[in-house]
Write a structure and sequence with these properties.
Nitrilase/N-carbamoyl-D-aminoacid amidohydrolase; 2 domains; 39% helix; 19 strands; Rossmann fold; seven-stranded mixed β-sheet; 594 residues; 22 helices
């Protein structure tokens, strides 16, 4: 008879503060797990409360709800072991994982490594845990830890595997996405599995929460570092797997490094508590051949490369999920956006159509005296190809009336920045009027390149409740659109990709009149914003010194604009907002002499 555990990975999309909704999802998976005679079911970090709950944690009623719903989960934990993340309170507040079985709370593990960088503020809310137990079910030992805990080689997984003899580590996580994060995370998990000769069940949250997107991508990795099962990315999913544990003992006996580590940690073994979980049944008897549930549940692709074709598709899936969840979780059913004939609004429209359905997307064409005939035509073609709804509201007369009333207060008759911005602000007012009238959420269409340098109009094209491509550089916008055209039969008119970008706020206007070529601009921005390189370092990479200085000063002087913009989905390693917190009032500037 094999020594086995039947594991259930429940990759759910939890909503912050939706205790009832989150509980119903959890209970549904527990019911399914029981039907399939599962031994252990694991849910993501803070699955009961949603992640990140931020300052809601400071409200006593919020913690009381968290504990109450944990008790409800406890009551349905008969015949199964449940691992669920919640906010607990025991003199201090903790980010916790409850281990439940037999309708009892067997133990509580408190997160030990609290991230306090990038988008994380956990030290603001939670106390650091210190208790590292090992659990034993049907004679098989496993450890439980939470998200950041597994990123440290000397963390609790080491103690659980080496000192505690655990053959399985279960990490419940809420790890947000950015470009390349899935591969980075799996590389880390590979290293932990190899170093500790342990199987790892990694259970990640999925879904959008304000500016964050959680990609899921949960997986099961064996003691040799091989991914033996992987959940889908960017969607709710689950998998059930029969983990045979016979091979791991042989692997450990053959591994000199593991044996040496075990000898070094022998003094800790007596101190590490082993908690036995009473088994009400033996789920896995005589598992062999077709009786193994793996043959029923492993029809999906187990290779990441087979699920997502390229980085552009990965980012697009993140943008769609983040947009969908922001819209629906905040109670909106429909959206409205300005369709200019440019590539940014085109991509935003396609994202919205995929997120909530084309018939729930309302596009508004707002031509002025400076709008080209081609832009209007391209916008109409895009609306037809995507199936989104559209209407045309000319701003020519509104603009004429506006400027006529301001004439005595304007210094000249030429089209200057003041008059350009008036057009943008009229368009913003039109969109907000439709939002008020019909309850539609306004989507802003600005990209990261333009927002970085302030090439956008406050209360104009920055108007919106949500900004899907806020963290997407212009060059990446083009890459994603080219990918979409390959996958969806040229859904974006080719002319939109070919024509020079323009705000069309005055005759013959082009973005490159005021900005460097986007390839140059984006490279400088990435070096400055994400890589934190200074002026001299960026110039040494081969960029023109005057251009670098101009771009850096534009970034620094437009913090006040960015603070007033709508939230948008984090895609890069360093997004504006939660990631990059610079003071608005700030006299520090880069100069060639620094």
């Amino acid at each position: 008879m094999n020594n086995s555990l039947r594991l259930y990975c429940a990759q759910i999309n939890a909503t912050v503060g939706d205790f009832t909704g989150n509980f119903e999802k959890i209970a549904s998976h527990i019911e399914n797990a029981k039907k399939n005679r599962v031994d252990i079911i694991a849910f993501p970090e803070l699955a009961i409360t949603g992640y990140p709950p931020e300052d809601l944690v400071l409200k006593p009623a919020f913690i009381e709800k968290s504990v109450h719903y944990l008790s409800r989960i406890k009551d349905i934990s008969d015949n199964i072991t449940v691992i669920a993340g919640y906010v607990s309170r025991d003199l201090e507040i903790y980010n916790s994982a409850a281990i439940l079985a037999g309708r009892r709370i067997i133990s509580v593990y408190n997160k030990q490594f609290l991230p306090n960088y990038s988008v994380f503020d956990e030290e603001r809310y939670f106390q650091q845990g210190s208790f590292t137990p090992v659990f034993e079910l049907n004679g098989i030992r496993f450890g439980v830890n939470i998200c950041e805990d597994i990123y440290y080689s000397s963390g609790p997984l080491l103690q659980q595997a080496i000192a505690g003899g655990a053959i399985l580590g279960i990490n419940i996580s809420a790890s947000p996405y950015h470009t390349g994060k899935i591969a980075e995370r799996e590389k880390m998990l590979f290293t932990r599995a190899i170093d500790n000769r342990i199987n790892i069940l990694y259970v990640n949250l999925v879904g959008g929460q304000d500016e964050l997107v959680f990609d899921g991508s949960s997986c099961l990795i064996n003691e040799k570092g091989a991914i033996i099962y992987r959940a889908e990315s960017f969607e709710e999913d689950f998998f059930i797997y029969d983990l045979d544990t016979d091979d791991i003992s042989f692997t450990r006996m053959q591994d000199t490094k593991f044996k040496n580590q075990r000898e070094l940690m022998r003094q800790h073994m007596d101190k590490l508590q082993v908690i036995k979980i009473p088994s009400e049944k033996s789920n896995l008897k005589n598992l062999s051949g077709k009786e193994k549930i793996n043959e029923k549940f492993t029809e999906k692709k187990d290779l990441y490369s087979g699920t997502i074709s390229c980085i552009e598709e990965e980012i697009f899936m993140a943008l769609v999920l983040g947009t969908k969840d922001f819209i629906l979780k905040n109670g909106f059913k429909k959206v409205v956006l300005g369709l200019s004939g440019g590539i940014d609004s085109a991509l935003t429209a396609v994202i919205a159509a995929h997120a909530i359905g084309a018939k729930n997307v309302n596009a508004v064409l707002m031509p002025s005296a400076f709008s080209s005939e081609g832009s209007i035509k391209d916008s109409l073609i895009l609306a037809e190809k995507t199936g989104i709804l559209h209407r045309i509201i000319s701003i020519k007369d509104i603009y004429s009336a506006f400027t006529a009333n301001l004439e005595s207060n304007l210094t000249g008759s030429e089209i200057n920045v003041t008059k350009e911005n008036i057009q943008a602000r009229i368009r913003g007012a039109v969109l907000m009027a439709l939002s008020n009238e019909y309850g539609w959420l306004v989507l802003a269409t600005g990209n990261k390149s333009e927002i970085s340098v302030g090439y956008c109009t406050l209360y104009g094209d920055m108007v919106g409740g949500f900004s899907p491509i806020k963290d997407v550089y212009k060059t990446r916008v083009y890459d994603i659109c080219r990918f979409l055209n390959k996958k969806y039969n040229n859904i974006i008119p080719e002319q939109i990709l070919l024509k020079a970008p323009s705000a069309e706020l005055k005759p013959e206007q082009k973005d490159q009149d005021k900005l460097p070529p986007y390839e140059t601009l984006d490279a400088i921005l990435k070096s400055y914003i994400e890589d934190e390189k200074d002026y001299q370092e960026i110039v040494s990479e081969g960029f023109d010194s005057a251009t670098v200085l101009e771009v850096l000063n534009m970034v620094d002087s437009n913090e006040y604009k960015r603070r007033q913009g709508s939230p948008g989905i984090k895609i890069t390693a360093r997004a504006f907002g939660r990631d990059r917190r610079y003071p608005i009032t700030n006299k520090f500037r880069i100069s060639p002499g620094d």
